[in-house]
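User: Sequence recovery, please. Input:
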């Protein structure tokens, strides 16, 4: 793919198909195809995928929280919620409340598919430009990341990279977007990107 297609957000049907093509286990949650924050701001052009941890425990509670959000931060809180059993629960289609503000130098590096600089500014709307995956984990550095879950994260990110013609450098952790965040904690983004690169070969 070239040019405009590389940055046009994927459709719901194409996302489901792309995830299944990677062999992912997919659950479509409630009205996810119409669930977004498009009334609050723009969605697209898209430039990358952002990985998060939820700081929660329990699959059902976690998926509900990411779908609904809370009083201070309405849902959807990402496009997909990846639970410990390796299921990708689709919860949002369009603009989602997951990235917040981050560093424009990081966005430029993601667009160029290069290693990102250490973030030191909060001047750019990330919800406009990134797909988000919230992954069930306490984020305390002790809660384990099961192999099934890491594989699902790899597949989710690779599915979008393959669709858009991006490489693994288009996948960042929330902590690479803003110095105010520490997620995901418990694996390195370098290790995840290596797996994505291998899968994309
Ligand atoms: Zn986050």
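Assistant: Recovered sequence (201 residues):
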């Amino acid at each position: 793919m070239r040019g405009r297609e590389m940055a046009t957000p994927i459709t719901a049907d194409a996302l489901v198909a792309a995830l299944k093509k990677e062999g992912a286990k997919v659950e479509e949650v409630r009205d996810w195809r119409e669930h977004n924050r498009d009334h609050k701001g723009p969605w697209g052009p898209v430039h990358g995928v952002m990985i998060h941890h939820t700081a929660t425990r329990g699959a059902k509670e976690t998926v509900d929280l990411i779908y609904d959000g809370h009083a201070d931060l309405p849902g959807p809180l990402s496009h997909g919620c990846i639970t410990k059993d390796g299921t990708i629960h689709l919860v949002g289609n369009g603009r989602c409340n997951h990235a917040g503000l981050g560093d424009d130098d990081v966005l430029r590096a993601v667009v160029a598919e290069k290693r990102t600089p250490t973030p030191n500014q909060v001047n750019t709307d990330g919800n406009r430009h990134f797909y988000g995956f919230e992954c069930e984990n306490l984020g305390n550095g002790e809660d384990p990341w099961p192999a099934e879950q890491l594989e699902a994260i790899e597949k989710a990110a690779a599915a979008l990279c393959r669709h858009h013609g991006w490489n693994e450098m288009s996948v960042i952790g929330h902590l690479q977007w803003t110095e105010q965040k520490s997620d995901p904690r418990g694996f390195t983004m370098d290790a995840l990107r290596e797996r994505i690169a291998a899968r994309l070969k």
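The first helix runs from residue 12 to 21.
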